[in-house]
Specification:
single chain; 268 residues; alpha/beta; D-Maltodextrin-Binding Protein, domain 2; two-stranded antiparallel sheet; 7 strands; rod-shaped; glycoprotein; membrane; Insect_Ionotropic_Sensory_Rcpt; transmembrane; Ionotropic receptor
């Protein structure tokens, strides 16, 4: 580059770029500056550093955009900026990997009466209700001499002091015994599986996290990590997962985000 001068704007962001005061002067240090110096030595250009101007209340991306559009020209800006896609800002290839940790809440074990009906599916319970309704109709038409207490005694297995003598009564008696026996055995066979299964769903991958239905959320800055680069590997599996997370991601304000993190850590 024929020893030309390149205007470099920087943002104070330790350890990427910061100034250290030594002997009434400032010495610049940082990861970004070290990388830039190596590139400058190989391409033969000089670095002209200047701190970017702007209010502290202005976001970094907006500060960069304002500086690039101002009269003061910057050829390159350093300072550990996070990729935040913007039409008028182009980013270099990232050299740092940010580790993201998901805090997944543990579902509390809640005892309820639903545990009594969970071993059987709703279709099975519906069939049982239909059978009972059919039995009630038969009782009023053919077995009107048998009381409901006597029928209930047959179902729960209590001794009955009346012996069925007629053909229809014996058929009713045997049918209810077989029905009650099958229902009881089916219920007891399904109940241990419900009691012994792991109540917590294992979440080992991002796919498991997405399939679990747990809402995903975080800070506004964290959501930007899932914007992705649609020009590279746009059809890859990882790109598809990133797009799904970005669409489902819920952004919280800083105060709400910190409160929710503390609640998760404390187990609330």
């Amino acid at each position: 580059m024929n020893n030309c001068s390149v205007n470099i704007g920087y943002l104070i962001n330790e350890p990427y770029m910061h100034a250290v005061k030594k002997n009434n002067s400032f010495e610049y240090n940082g990861v970004d500056l070290a990388i830039l110096q190596v590139i400058a030595n190989h391409l033969n250009f000089t670095i002209n550093l200047s701190e970017m101007e702007g209010s502290k209340n202005v976001m970094k991306t907006q500060k960069i955009a304002n500086s690039l559009h101002s009269n003061r020209s910057y050829d390159l800006i350093i300072g550990g900026m996070v990729w935040q896609p913007k039409d008028d800002i182009d980013y270099t290839i990232a050299y740092e990997v940010v580790q993201i940790v998901w805090l997944v809440p543990v579902q509390p074990e809640v005892t309820s009466f639903m545990a009594l009906i969970s071993p059987l599916e709703m279709t099975v319970w519906f069939a049982i209700i239909v059978v009972f309704l059919f039995a009630i109709i038969i009782r009023f038409t053919l077995f009107y001499k048998i009381s409901f207490l006597e029928i209930f005694a047959i179902i729960i297995g209590v001794a009955w002091n009346r012996q069925p003598m007629g053909y229809y009564y014996r058929t009713m008696f045997i049918s209810w015994i077989i029905f009650g026996f099958i229902l009881t055995q089916f219920y007891l066979a399904s109940l241990p599986g419900r009691l012994l299964e792991d109540p917590e769903e294992e979440i080992d991958t991002i796919n498991d996290l997405l399939d679990s239905g747990i809402p995903l959320g975080g800070s506004k800055l964290a959501k930007l990590f899932f914007v992705g680069n649609r020009t590279i590997n746009s059809s890859s599996t990882s790109s598809g997962l990133i797009d799904k997370i970005f669409k489902k991601f819920i952004v919280f304000e800083r105060i709400d985000y910190e409160k929710k993190v503390q609640d998760l850590i404390s187990g609330k």
